[in-house]
Amino acid sequence: MRITSKGQVTIPIDIREKAGLLPNTDVAFVLEGKAVRLVPSATKRKDTRGQRLVGHLRGRGDVAMTTDEIMALTRKR
Predict the structure, then answer these.
(1) Residue 75 contacts residue 66 (beta carbons within 8 Å)
(2) What is the pLDDT of residues 8-44, one digit of tens each?
(3) b/e for 65-74, b at 16 or more Cβ within 10 A?
(4) How many other C-beta atoms lie within 10 A of the C-beta of residue 10?
(5) Distance between CA 16 and CA 22 in Å, rounded?
(6) C-alpha span between 26 and 15 (Å, rounded)
(7) Domain map of the chain by residue range?
(8) Pairwise CA distance, residues 13 & 44, whole Å
(9) 57 φ/ψ angles, rounded to the nearest 5 degrees
């Protein structure tokens, strides 16, 4: 494995899967002597604008219909 001019390396899929490093996982680098260890980051990512909007709207609905009733209206049955 070689480090690119941008300081990037590709982590092989078998190592990513075994370590649980899924796409969009935040990671941290831990320096241990001359070795570097890659670990899932302990800090939580900030919510996206969409996540904040959904969180704001959650539980605010006042429609007294069931999901099945709403779906029936959308399907015009």
Answers:
(1) no
(2) 999 999 999 998 888 888 889 999 999 999 988 877 7
(3) eeeeeeeeee
(4) 9
(5) 7
(6) 16
(7) 13-74
(8) 24
(9) -85, -20
